[in-house]
Write the structure tokens for this entry.
Amino acid sequence: MTELYDLHSHSTASDGALSPCELVARAAENAVTTLALTDHDTVSGLAEAKIHADLLSIRLINGIEISAQWEKQCLHIVGLNIDLQHEALQKIIHTAQVMRQERAEKIALKLEKKGIYGALLAIQNALGKDANLITRSHFATFLMSHCHVATPQEAFDRYLGDGKAAYVSTTWTPLESVVQAILAAGGIPVIAHPLRYKLTATRMKKLLGAFKNMGGQAIEVVTGRYNPDEMRILANYANQFELAGSVGSDFHSPTNQWIELGRVAALPDNVKPVWELWQ
Ligand code: AMP
Ligand code: MN
Ligand code: MN
Ligand code: MN
């Protein structure tokens, strides 16, 4: 059987559109053999995902995508193959969720100043028991469903993006603490979508050097938006800094026609696969 790895995906436990069970079913349909569910700052979808992964004979990797602060930059650090019960990790998750709740309240206030009322209550009602995990995507969905914007992109461009009307800057947990917590929980720290931070080559090398020194082990070399040039750049960075390469679509929703679960390029031959670190 051909192995197909997708090590970055989201469910309704954070800002994904599919429940963990639906996500695993879609992975099976798309011939994924090893799936990591990596919701933002929560592991609450993993128990349900595991039950369905076992039923469908998919290997499920316990994952998470943690927001971290490096200098002035917010970075997304994926933790793969983590022990869910580990105290250090639980603490980091709790801190992130408190920060998200506080940020959500501030975003809602800023929206009210623009004449848009009731966002937080509507989001909390829709989320039910998981209301402690609110992302900007939830606000984008609210703004769309109440006809303030036509697309999620417009929600970010007008309200939620960096420096826009309802933007609230947050200081996330320091990168080093996030890396340490993932390592303590037996996991592998991976820099998610490294080119999305739009760092200069100098800053990127500074980040990769610092990340490696902290105990970071991999970067995503293959992401859902296939671009051979970018993949080559990332493969070179991985090798230069002796980091393994990960593969992940960052799938959120079937309505995004550009990104599909399991639709990822093969990891370049010259890069050490991240899954060799746990096999
Ligand atoms: P947060 O972690 O709460 O700041 O939310 C970040 C999430 O919002 C990301 O994981 C994406 O799913 C989504 N997102 C960020 N920027 C955009 C954008 N420009 N358009 C659509 N979704 C976005
Ligand atoms: Mn997201
Ligand atoms: Mn991300
Ligand atoms: Mn993601």
Observations:
- The first strand starts at residue 5 and ends at 6.
- Residues 15, 40, 67, 135-137, 152-153, 156, 252 surround adenosine monophosphate (ligand 1) (CB under 6 Å).
- The chain has a mean pLDDT of 96.
- The two ends are 17 Å apart (CA to CA).
